[in-house]
Amino acid sequence: MDLLSERKKKLKELKELNIIPYEYKFDKKHNSKQILDNFSKFKNKKVSIAGRIMTQRIMGGASFAHIQDGDGQIQIYINKSVKNYDLFKKLDIGDIIGVKGKVFKTKKGEISVEVNSFQLLTKSLRPLPEKWHGLKDKEIRYRQRYVDLIMNQEVKEVFRKRALTIQAMREFLIKNGYIEVETPILQPIYGGTNARPFESKLNALNMKVYMRISNELYLKRLIVGGYEKIFEFSQDFRNEGVDKTHNPEFLLMETMCAYANYEDNMDFVEEMFEFIAKKVNGTTKVTYQGRKIDFKRPWKRMRMVDAIKEFAKIDIENMSDEEIKKFMEKNNLKLETKFSRGLAMELIFEELVEKNLIQPTIIYDYPFETCGLAKPKKDNPDYAERFEPYVNGWELGNIYSELNDPEILRAYWKKQEKKNKEEKDKEAQRMDEDFLRALEYGMPPTSGVGIGVDRLVMLLTNSESIRDVIFFPFMRPE
């Protein structure tokens, strides 16, 4: 008989004995960490704890076990003086029980609870795996995150730090006068960035809808409406590739601040990252996959063209189109669309420069044609007032002075729609007449910050893959 069948047989026997295998409630008043951290306070005191049986040493007249709750594990000791001791001996690893008893320390010095009474709360039908920690096939751990969390306490710690990261970010924003808002996830027109959306249909109105790829255009509508400092934690969806730093569903934190520009937000982003690192880890320093990284201000700041000059060893501003094409051919760099200087510059940067930006670095002044929602620079409209923070060779955000001229934006979107039609570019942006109408009412000078929360959590927790910091990453069907 396999273990699942054996446990189902035990379940049947429990029911025949009129023992409830799936209880409705237990009066849990304490947790393992409380007791372990404050033994002197709890010594010889009665406690009420509950958790999952993780180890058992069943003996004749007395037994030991470890139960695991949301904060850790604690040993329990039970002997035959407890009236339902025979039931305890029949329990399995994985069963969830409630325990009332007195705190003491064993001869070996382990803080434990001597059981006065216990209650079966949940019968576990599937046995816990014997070898799960460090499982090489991580896909199983991602699919069965519930088992991963039971077996690996360090995984739970990663997600505790994820929660702290979001809390710290929210705390920083509120301290700086920002108000949290909510915008639509289902949108009639997707926009705010270049990305391929997920499509669906709203049956009630017989219309096509999209999962948001960005919340940016809705935040700007609120700025038009009179808000001045707003932010949102935005669950976004992009129908694109999956790799170590990309998941189809991800968390973005986006702000909008009226009367500010991208230079104001350079300081703001540095301050925010430093604040979060200290809150989460108690220090601005982290070690990520063997690399030491320090979020302490001030960060290095470089124009994109200067970063290309330093790491790709070319002065791209003073090169002709033909020279740029030859350089790209020599380095096996190919554009997916027609050649343009801006797109070529962006590709060269991504392929030859990004990987060198290990310590926190701000790269600014991107080619205008690669960021049509940003303001062109006053002194050189070929470039946009845009920057991105880089750490460990990853882009962690996208920040710019927001374009608020509806005529320039209309012209940009017309080009995007033509690109979509002629080149079948599924990532091209769409014309949004309602947003243009909002801009025609007038939006003050504004700058927004977009930060990829998942990648930041990866850095703060030394997690190798984005799937390590998302509870339920998207997986292929089994």
Estimate the helix proportion, in percent.
Answer: 25-40%
Overall pLDDT? 94
**CA distance, first residue to last residue:** 26 Å
Give the overall silhouette. Answer: elongated
Number of helices: 15
The tally of domains stands at 2
> What is the CATH C-level name of the largest domain?
Alpha Beta
What fold name stands as the CATH topology of the largest domain? BirA Bifunctional Protein, domain 2
Tell how many strands the DSSP assignment holds: 19
Largest sheet: 9 strands, mixed
- Specify the CATH homologous superfamily of the largest domain: Bira Bifunctional Protein, Domain 2
Our estimate of the beta-strand percent is 25-35%
Which regions contain 5 or more consecutive residues with pLDDT less than 50?
Answer: none
Instruction: Label the structural class.
Output: alpha+beta
CATH architect. name of the largest domain: 2-Layer Sandwich
